[in-house]
Amino acid sequence: MVAAEDAGRNETDVAEKLDIEPDMVVQEIGWDEDVDDTVREAIEQRCGGELLDEDADEVVDVVLLWWRDEDGDLTDTLLDIMAPLAEEGVIWVMTPKTGLDGHVEPSDIAEAAATSNLAQTSNLSLGDKWTGTRLAYRKPAKTKR
After folding, report:
1. Are 74 and 108 in contact (CB under 8 A)?
2. Closest CA to 94 of 51, 139, 138
3. Distance (Å, rounded) from C-alpha 96 to C-alpha 87?
4. Which InterPro entries match (predicted)?
5. Can you tell me the distance from the alpha carbon of 120 to that of 109, in angstroms, rounded to the nearest whole number?
6. Cα atoms found within 13 Å of the Cα of residue 110, Cβ hemisphere only
7. What is the pTM of this model?
8. Which of 12, 55, 66, 97 minimizes the number of CB atoms within 10 Å of its CB?
9. Which residues have C-beta within 8 Å of that of residue 117, sequence separation ≥ 6?
């Protein structure tokens, strides 16, 4: 049995793995009954506020995108959610793990990211059902003088 302290620490660890910092503004898109509430609660606890919903129009540091295979066109969605994203902001594309309903092939995420001028920077396993893929703006190529 896990002690309450350990459970709280594990939740915080999830938010730390997602690079969530206190006072960050986090927007959540694609919420449904199947999302991992432990991840959501850890992020809220770490950033110190509630997750903004899809209709928020504030500049955000992180977008938490819950995405399933049947959710439509990932490239279009990425382009839409980039508008309120801060210059140094990141998008976490949360997808069901391999073998689960709604699983998205990693190559599909990579292709959508590249088309949206985003770079895939890391992947994380989150709980039993979800995988997170971190996307960030591509850095401009350095020019030689």
Report:
1. yes
2. 51
3. 28
4. DUF3052
5. 8
6. 6
7. 0.88
8. 55
9. 137, 138
